[in-house]
Amino acid sequence: VTGVQTCALPIFKIDLNSTKTTITDRGSSYLEGGRINLRGEMRGKNFAARKIEIASHRLNFTGKSNLEIRTKKNTSIIDSVIATVTGENIEGDMTILGSFLDIPGSRGGFRAATKTTIVVPVASKQAGTFVTSGSFKSQDARFSDFRLYETESDFEVDTSKFKLTNTALKIGDTTVAKG
Fold first, then answer.
1. What's the pLDDT at 8?
2. 81 and 65 Cβ atoms separated by less than 8 Å
3. How far apart are alpha carbons 112 and 158 in whole angstroms?
4. How far is the C-alpha of 32 from the C-alpha of 95, rounded, in Å?
5. What's the mean per-residue pLDDT of the chain?
6. Which helix (H) or strand (E) holds 19?
7. Main-chain phi, psi angles of 63, to 5 degrees
8. Taking the alpha carbons of 136, 141, 146, 152 in that order, is the dihedral positive or negative?
């Protein structure tokens, strides 16, 4: 083809290692002195983190992420940013969920696998959205001082709800509630 120039989009490789990271928001603390390792690459308007590791006393997370920057049609004006984070192996303390949802009396261990999608509008005044879904198993945990024993459940959290499905409450090897 004559008169047409083509060029490959640049690829930026990112290798981030942080040994003491603290994340807080409006007086709530989510990560205190944690270690974060992230490896990924930026191709055009997309960032893919092939490996994310977070290690702290309240949260250990292994997963991956994809971030897409969307522009208004036929312009370079950023319209929105969409991030998808997949938590493949998560272990933590319920205090982190209590901090996030502002629910005191939450503590004890859990294991989970999750997928979170976050949409951040940039060119409009619309509110951002997020949806987190997945499965978890509590380890003698409490949520708002309600004892969960060994609960297994699927869940979905967004800006308006916290929904549990396929839930089984176990004490030892005995299932005492299911729903």
1. 59
2. no
3. 17
4. 12
5. 89
6. strand 11-25
7. -170, -160
8. positive
Place of tokens 């690829």: 11
What's the longest Cα–Cα distance across the chain?
Answer: 74
* Per-residue model confidence (pLDDT) at position 2: 44
Residue type, 153: S
Rounded CA-CA distance 117/37 in Å is 21
**How many H helices and E strands in the chain?**
1, 10
Q: What percent of the chain has pLDDT over 90?
A: 56
pTM: 0.78
- pLDDT the model gives residue 1: 40
Give the residue among 159, 111, 158 at the shortest CA–CA distance from 138. Answer: 111
Q: Which run of H or E residues covers position 25? A: strand 11-25
Kindly report, residue by residue over 121-153, the tens digit of the pLDDT. 998 888 899 999 999 999 989 989 999 899 999
Match 């006393």 to its residue by tokens: 57
Residues 6+ apart with CB under 8 A from 44: 9
Tokens read off for 20: 């003491």
Q: Which two tokens stand for residue 29?
A: 């603390």
Q: Which of 159, 166, 108 is nearest to 135 (CA)?
A: 166
